[in-house]
Amino acid sequence: MFDNLSSKLDKAFQVLKGHGKITEINVAETLKEVRRALLDADVNFKIAKEFTNRVKEKALGQEVLTTLNPGQLLVKIVKDELTSLMGEEVVGINLANKPSVILMSGLQGSGKTTLTGKLALHLKKTTAKKPLLVACDVYRPAAIDQLGIVAEQIDVPIYQDREEKDPVKIALAGIAAAKAQKCDVVLVDTAGRLAVDEALMNEISNIHKAITPDETLFVVDAMTGQDAVNTAKAFHDRLNFDGVVLTKMDGDTRGGAALSIKTVVNKPIKFMGTGEKMEALDIFYPERMADRILGMGDVVSLVERAQQQFDEQEARKISKKIAKNQFGFDDFLSQIQQVKKMGNMKDLMGMIPGMGKALKGVDIDDDAFKHIEAIIGSMTPAERSNPALINPSRKKRIAKGAGRDLDEVNKMIKQFHQMSKMMKMMQGGKGKQMMQMFQGMR
Q: How much is the pTM?
């Protein structure tokens, strides 16, 4: 996400290295590169030009603070302007009514149906709401089937009526069903088309008028760049929607939609889809996104994701085992499973300050843990609970059983011992020091 934009902005800021003061000449040279980087990211030309003009206005004539060099000062100004461009503040969704009705709109192929399920799961986990999904796509039987599969995956009820062909009636019946089942939130999944047309806009408008939703969200594929912005404007003109959800933010997106859409429709980006898993939905924080675009990482989001997957009971159990030197490979595997639930591995690594640049061009497979799981799976229960039993001959047997090289087994066991040591340090009162050192990287 934003890899190309991040590296091009970094290159632009190199122009100011070694200068003692920001001048019109070195700012102009830097901002020319910044504007080019934004245009390459598929940001609208007018928006890119206005953005660099605002940065220039703020930067010129500013004396460099004692703790900053010109490059750092300009990065700070660019970060503030990027944050402003993407919406400044985090805006939540309206869940005041019972049930609260959320209307999902967008084109076919934007990931709307999957996103509807992701949002239902997010609300279920973070607000303890009881959601109901309503299938209002009367044209594609596969859409109803897909929403049914999604509902089953996240264990929430669904309202569907394959006989009824009027989506307005289905939506109203779905809301009535939610009231009867005492559901707190109704998520109405609507039909999409491959492009904006009058029939689509009339239908979504009719549903909108009939159900008067508490929240109308426009779901858009972030990889479509300026096309996404144009589509958003067409939907907004008819629906006056409350917010935008960007999907496929983990793909090879250039970032133009995220940077342009707020300016064009003047509505906040509320969520972003960050992977294929149902848990891969994040609240959109403009300032954190600006940090990530500029290669500063996003430790806060990383910690929040970890906390969402954090099992308190399991943590207490592991804590006792560490204290008694009983931490074994089954516990190690349990920690890996929790990390895997946090999302796309490259995305997670990119949240660590400085790692985005280091990982440029590096392909991190989401199956990076597969060989570890295979090696642990090849161990006996006794070996998993008591790693000290594993001698050279056992290592050979484990390697053969897992179909891996002996070197890989040795490397994995070394990683296990390093993790055990680190966790013991965290328990031994050095955790605060380690956290301060980590935060110092920002």
A: 0.70
